[in-house]
Amino acid sequence: MALTDLIPWARNRDLGPARVEDTDPFLALHRNMNRMLDDFSASFGVPFARTNWSSTWPHVEVKESGENLQIVADLPGLEEKDVEISLADGVLSLKGEKKVESEKPLYSERWHGRFQRNLQLGPDIDPEKISASFKNGVLTITCGKRLEAQTQVKRIPINA
């Protein structure tokens, strides 16, 4: 039985051209092996396993300067009111929800739903020195470091 027989709206319809992955057995094998290894590593609690899309979305960029840590997250299609930011025990949490824009689309590859992304920032961040801005779907969070953390740089000599 074909998968299209199980989907009522797909019967007797042309679904368009097949993706390359669907026609190339080596790419299909590669995709299935990656999925199998991700599932296997998730059972050991490996932090970078790609088992749940919402746990690694939104994708972030982290930059560090001497006195600040800056986190930039792309959140296309969201507004400021759709996102919640919190800091607890050195962990920055981004939570939100991307709502469905149209009811029951015929076909969609767009992502929607709730998400939560936790970033371990550590004890060096001062909770009183955090600010956030949101513009054109880009969230920028600036975290100030504690004064003690800014001066705790120890040079280690090589071959001394």
**What proportion of the residues form beta strands (DSSP E)?**
25-35%
CATH class descriptor name of the largest domain:
Mainly Beta
End-to-end CA span: 71 Å
**Helix proportion of residues, in percent?**
10-25%
Radius of gyration of CA atoms, rounded to a whole number: 22 Å
CATH architecture of the largest domain: Sandwich
CATH overall fold name of the largest domain? Immunoglobulin-like
How many domains? The number is 2
- Give the structural class: alpha+beta
Give, in spatial order, the strands making up the sheet with the most strands.
1-2-7-6
Unreliable sequence segments? 46-54
Beta-strand segment tally:
7
Output the number of helix runs: 4
Could you list some keywords that capture this structure?
160 residues, alpha+beta, Immunoglobulin-like, 2 domains, 4-stranded antiparallel β-sheet, 3-stranded antiparallel β-sheet, 19% helix, flat
List the helices and strands and how they pair.
Layout: H1 3-6, H2 20-23, H3 25-42, E1 60-64, E2 68-74, E3 83-88, E4 91-98, E5 113-120, E6 125-135, E7 138-145, H4 147-151
Antiparallel strand pairs: 1-2, 2-7, 3-4, 4-5, 6-7
